[in-house]
Amino acid sequence: MKVRRKTSPAKKRPSRRKTHKPAIRVQLSNHPTVLQPSETFRVCPLGLQFYSPKKIPDFKVMNFRMQMAPGNGEQEEVTCSGVVVHCQKEKATGLYRVWVKFLDLAKDNGARLECAAKNADTICPHCENF
What we know:
Blueprint: E1 24-28, E2 34-35, E3 42-44, E4 47-52, E5 61-68, E6 76-89, E7 96-102, H1 107-119, H2 125-128
Antiparallel strand pairs: 1-2, 1-5, 3-4, 4-7, 5-6, 6-7
């Protein structure tokens, strides 16, 4: 007769269910381009990083509308402006990597953006460590 041992709850394997990660969509105000998140898209309360087919001059002020789901399932829209702090052409893709520093993101919107970015796995490496 074979005896089956019960596995203790501490030794059970974690569930392998995939969780749905809410997206963050960023749109440049007065411009039809929507920056769809990819594995290289990063955003946090400090700013964002994305790729552009065109060079964007340093110190250019841009207005953004961001739609995000900060974890409660509801979509929120946040508007703010930012300044381009660096724009560099990537040889491999031919696209320009753009870094933007937010200028007027309200503190409470920044906290919600940080939560949404963590849920969507788009938080910047600096904020990810804090």
